[in-house]
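Researcher: Checking consistency across runs. Here is Xaa-Pro aminopeptidase again:
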Amino acid sequence: MKYQNLENKLFVNNRINLIKHLKNNSLAIFNANDEFPRSGDQNFPFKQNCDLFYLSGIDQEKTILLLYPDCPNPLYREVLFLRQTNEHIKIWEGLKYTKSMAEQTSGIKKICWLEDFDHILHSIISYADHIYLNTNENNNTVQPIAYRDIRFIEEMKSRYPLHHYERAAPILRHLRETKSETEVQLIQKACDITRDAFIRVLKFTCPQVTEYEIEAEIIHEFIRQRATGHAYPPIIASGNNANILHYGDNNQICKENELILMDFGAEYANYNADLSRTIPVSGRFTPRQKSVYKSVQHVLKEAKKLLKPGISGNDYNENVSELMTAQLVGLGLITMEEVKNQNPAYPAYKKYFMHGISHHLGLDVHDFAHRYTPFQAGNVLTCEPGIYIPEEGFGIRLENNILLTADGNIDLMADIPIDAEEIEEIMNS
């Protein structure tokens, strides 16, 4: 890991909070993600299961966490299982966790090698009434691959069919959506690195630069500051490419008088930032570009005011739709007649602003959270309005990351340049 060591208090507290939500006499098991193979003899870079990291801080493949707070044998109430290293692994792959390193990282005192897992589990599982197992319960996507958690569930039910199995995911969803002070600091660190990368890009960009050269400047700054890398594949979309919401080719030349829509963020210690900015290739917005830009910025400012504990996602999105509709009418992109006669299932504003305004952010870029509960203090959400105009050859999106507090919110990206005039000033300095 490139990031600096984290205090294990974060992970100790996370386990304590999880255990409070388990039924009496329950055992819970969490697995590391798979290592996914590429062609030949290579694997894709390993990315830890976010729930396992949240509970242990361990950033290594082939790891299992076992929690059994009511275990009659106190040795096995909290056990971390690791891949045992050897001289061959040390030479070919480098340093792996030792038992003492894992204890220091996680705060777990009982560290065992992975080869002992089956024996230890079998010796205590018959005393447990409930078994909590984990899955990726994300309602935005369907997983077609039988990943590690799914295979493990099948193995457990085959070996121990008469136990009462429970879902760990709803508990983790509830816990992870409210960030602790330490988690906020880590997200802020990711935001700060992202800020520095954006300022670097502002000073670098000019006509005839390529999208991939801008991407290279971003990753240079990320790695220089000990980020793991990109939080997600970066979007560097010049000209009409900005009207492709998930554009990722990043291979075009940025031309004079075009805009560049950039959507990128750093990952630091597995926590993520998510920034969108739109800048003029030539260092100056045209009058039309600036008017659309200021409309998007107006929606961002007003939408941020709405992000307070207690507001529901539905009410929030409804209010934002009214804000965006007014701006689109003012820009001449839609008419009041179209608004009056719009299809409620596809309102008029959707022609130019077709995606959601916010999502939760944390260990996942689209973080684990309950879609139907009101926002609450400790949530971190993006706020990302956009206006996309294919017929005019550009699109504009602005996005900041917002921490909800008891009495309002804090913009974690408040110090990242966003005013059109400030962007122009930096680009021309």
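Researcher: Does this match what you'd expect to see?
Model: One thing to look at in this run: The two ends are 36 Å apart (CA to CA).
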